[in-house]
Amino acid sequence: MIPSIEKIELSIMKYSDFNFRQNLIVFRVTGLSGVVNHECDCLIMTKSGYLTEIEIKRSYEDFLNDFKKDHHHEDPHIKEFFFMVHESFKDKVIERLIEMKHVPTGIYVYDDECRISLAISYTKIVELIFGEPYHRCNMDDYHSYSNGWTAKRLFLEEQYQLARLGAMRYKNMTEKLINRVL
Fold first, then answer.
1. Number of domain units in the chain
2. pLDDT beyond 70 at 141
3. Angle, helix 90-100 to helix 122-130, in steps of 10 degrees
4. With DSSP H G I counted as helix, E B as strand and the rest as coil, what are the percentages for the chain, rounded to 5?
5. pTM exceeds 0.85, yes or no
């Protein structure tokens, strides 16, 4: 059974690769936030102000719908971009990305118990697309979601805005939990 979005978000917070104690992790950031120009399921900001985006998908149809949107997760502040999908449709996601020649930084999977692991890395996806080792691939023929070395770090004002959004999300979530209990 596919876990709830809240359970997936909590698992992201606990996952050691995302380092909750070192990085700021904020969920459900809108394009109106003043931080990025599109909706993000999860943004992780490092202490130096660089962003990683994680697009959480709970179904293969949800994944396909992502390509019908006006934006394609392109923002000059996004240094790395990952899809996070349930293990039951991971292979279909990888096949579709290869077919479209769209390369995220990687794909994480979660299982029914919300355990997270890296399913495939950037270099492996590129190698699958081109059928040869990464260092020999013609990188002009694919679409990359991440900006790698060219990403712009957030200004202090933008970093503050993201932290403020995170605090607002926490307040709203706490109110929901309290109202459920009462």
1. 1
2. no
3. 60
4. 45, 25, 30
5. yes
